[in-house]
Amino acid sequence: MNQTLQAxxxxxxxxxxxxxxxxxxxxxxxxxxxxxxxxxxxxxxxKGVSRIDSLKLLLGQANPPRAYSAAEMDELADRKNKLYxxxxxxxxxxxxLPGIDVFLSELREAGIKTGIASASKNAPAVLRSLGVTSxxxxxxxxxxxxxxxxxxxxxxTAAASLGVEPGACIGVxxxxxxxxxxxxxxxxxVAIGSGSQFPKADAVLPSTAELNYRELAQRFAxxxx
Length: 225
Ligand code: BG6
Ligand code: MG
Hints:
Blueprint: E1 7-10, H1 19-33, H2 40-43, H3 51-59, H4 70-88, H5 100-109, E2 113-116, H6 123-130, E3 138-139, H7 153-162, E4 169-173, H8 176-185, E5 188-192, E6 203-205, H9 213-224
Parallel strand pairs: 1-2, 1-4, 2-3, 4-5, 5-6
Helix pairs in contact: 1-4, 3-4
The structure holds 6-O-phosphono-beta-D-glucopyranose (BG6) and magnesium ion.
Magnesium ion binds near residues 13, 15 and 47.
């Protein structure tokens, strides 16, 4: 195949900045109010999942089960988002995760395109607060998509708007649903987290501090020969 690396497409929450923690805190507040148990382990299933689908998963944990009307669900989802928006209000460029600033510079220097494939409607605001909007060549508009991760649509859309084949891209994710989406798109998948969590990833790094252009480009090339 001999395809060279042309683009790196990033998830946002938990990859560029630690907003995954704020999503957790906001959902935990809603869960406590509803008397639904909410653990960090369960929260892993919500990563990469849209707001309304996350709420459905959370309400599915209620014991005894209880039915919610569409209006009640909308109100809960809105309230979670308000809590989340309050939590992200203080984000500054200092909240970039370790290694991200340098990695983005390495990619720019090497002429590799960059994109954001986040399920979050708050992504553009978070990128602005971090001061990194101009460092990405595309930010997928999630409101225009039909399918959520693990469907590949968001990664395929990012590659198309960069004018690059999915097979020439690396995707970076901290969620299992995100790694599944990257693999379904035909990209090289880099997971941030622990190896046992991500059996399908092509590379697993314990932290964003380990992101290194030369090493990843080499590993990418080995799989594309
Ligand atoms: C993803 C997060 O990036 O965005 C999920 O991993 C979140 O936890 C989803 O539910 C949607 O985000 P938002 O900001 O539109 O509610
Ligand atoms: Mg994420």
